[in-house]
Write a structure and sequence with these properties.
Helix content is 34%, strand content 21%. It is α/β, with parallel strands linked by helices.
Length: 227
């Protein structure tokens, strides 16, 4: 029986990886990577020589069939993303769905989660907001349905977490500011676990001002308090 390990990797600080994850990455036959160059930095840091294979959102069916073929040959594979937990805003869930539809899971393949770092839970843990229930929406659409996306956040009775790129963060915060109440609490986390980690808390006006003044850009995780 083949095995597909879903392995969480650090979101920034390379020390944020579990002992179990390192053990799996050393023992598998092949590591499936969002970007092999990014993953190689992590592997080299821990002297892991396991071969890698590219698998990302633009991978063609030929590559997916190749991966399925390895599992049918009883190979052990590890799936990683560039940062964090696979299946969260990346195509990891599509591969698992394919295995389910092909009836390979349980019959010929085991899928094993190796949990670890996630920007979603990292941001939630330091937000200071009630997070016993929250909604995660991934990245905002870049063109169509943007207003609907932000309106959903504005109307939510639960806290909402979403990701944003350094190039669109100001635009997204400005759009959201037009829809939410002035006293609603917002937490913007930049470069979590990295050298220039910054966490801004307060009303949207205050947080937006801090983000505008920050010369260092990076990946963002935004938490919007409940309505």
């Amino acid at each position: 029986m083949g095995t597909l390990y879903i392995v969480a990797t650090p979101i920034g600080n390379l020390k944020d990886i579990t002992l179990r994850a390192l053990e799996v990455l050393k023992e598998v036959d092949l590591i499936l990577c969002e970007d092999t160059r990014v993953t190689r930095k992590l592997l080299d840091h821990y002297s892991i020589k396991t071969p890698t294979l590219s698998y990302h959102q633009h991978s063609r069916m030929k590559r997916i069939n190749e991966i399925v073929g390895y599992l049918e040959q009883d190979k052990k594979l590890a799936l990683v993303t560039d940062a964090g937990t696979p299946g969260i805003s990346d195509p990891g869930n599509k591969l698992i769905d394919r295995l389910i539809k092909d009836r390979l899971i349980e019959e010929q393949t085991r899928v094993v989660p190796i949990p670890g770092a996630s920007a979603v839970t990292a941001a939630a843990s330091v937000s200071g907001l009630p997070m016993d229930k929250f909604i995660f929406l991934g990245y905002p659409p870049t063109k169509k349905k943007r207003k609907k996306f932000f309106q959903e956040i504005a109307d939510s009775k639960y806290p909402v977490i979403f990701y944003e790129s350094p190039h669109r963060i100001l635009k997204s915060l400005e759009e959201l500011a037009l829809l939410i109440e002035h006293d609603r609490q917002v937490v913007v986390c930049r470069e979590l676990t990295k050298k220039f980690e910054s966490i801004y808390r307060g009303t949207m006006d205050k947080v937006l001002e801090k983000v505008q003044e920050d010369p260092v850009k990076g990946e963002y995780t935004v938490v919007v308090g409940e309505k």
